[in-house]
Amino acid sequence: MKLYVINGPNLNRLGTREPELYGKKTLKEIEVELMQLGSELGIEIRCFQSNIEGEIVSLIQAASDESDGIVLNAAAYTHTSVAIRDAVLCCAVPVLEVHLTNPNGRESFRKDSLLSDVCNGLIAGFGWRSYCLAVLWFGKYRRD
Ligand code: DQA
Questions:
Q1: Which of these, 35, 91, 136, 143, has the minimum number of CB atoms within 10 Å of its CB?
Q2: Which CATH number goes with the domain that contains 136?
């Protein structure tokens, strides 16, 4: 099994970006954790990050053609992007929406997700371990 982990804008700043909210691990450190977990579960993990909306659309399209699933943290685009929503809608593989924080417990504009109702599931609020839980679902708990 091959998974794409796709991260959106400002997540390349993890580690120094509001660490009290997002934690102290860098994105690279999280990616290493995910690759370790993936190898335990027999999953090849490919990690991507972009600050650019259209690049995230292209990554979802590539993942649809080349992978068995997507772990997607679209970050701020979660709340704004019709283009990413449309990419998820025509994606041939399952997509899990992931957030480090719980957007429902934050500012009101973060309560609206354009992705939640078109993704297969949502994991939020567990810090970097939200990604691990998503990988675990694909590797262990997913039912077709
Ligand atoms: C986030 C939550 C979003 O509201 C925010 O814009 C982010 C990160 C999270 O992982 O908690 O950039 O997706």
A1: 143
A2: 3.40.50.9100
